[in-house]
Design a protein that fits this description.
Layout lengths: L1 H17 L1 E2 L4 E2 L5 E5 L6 E5 L8 E2 L5 E7 L3 E7 L8 E6 L6 H4 L2 E3 L2 H11 L7 E4 L7 E2 L2
Antiparallel strand pairs: 1-11, 2-3, 3-4, 4-5, 6-7, 6-10, 7-8, 8-9
Amino acid sequence: MEVKKIILFTLVTILIPLSCDISQYKRIGDTNFYLIPDWEDHGSYLSHSGGKPGGFYSIKHEGIVKDVYWNQQYLIIKCSKSEKEPVKYWYLLNNTEDYNWKMFEIRQFFNSIEYEKALDSIGVSESRMKHTDGKIPWSLHIFN
């Protein structure tokens, strides 16, 4: 009986970790965009799932993500060099389901005035968009 318990315990301790995803990430609402932490845990970076589970494609941007706004058509990220610094980079991109670099039409702004003008020109307002910060909560995805 003791041998059966040892075998069962061994199987459970081997199989459970193999069926878990212990990576950290944060999905941006119902989009295919995700925030992924950097290796040194200094902040998060924007990625896209490509519409398929199991992989992430990096979206090139300066600094770490501090805020994300999105709606059905657009995604906005605000970035800085570190958690303690103010926002220095603003990005506006198309909210697409598939990973296609050209379809994202990424626009980068280096000051808030240019950024606000761009939003006004396309009729977008942060106040009418969903919002989340750049922080990623720890989570364990079992049998994902």
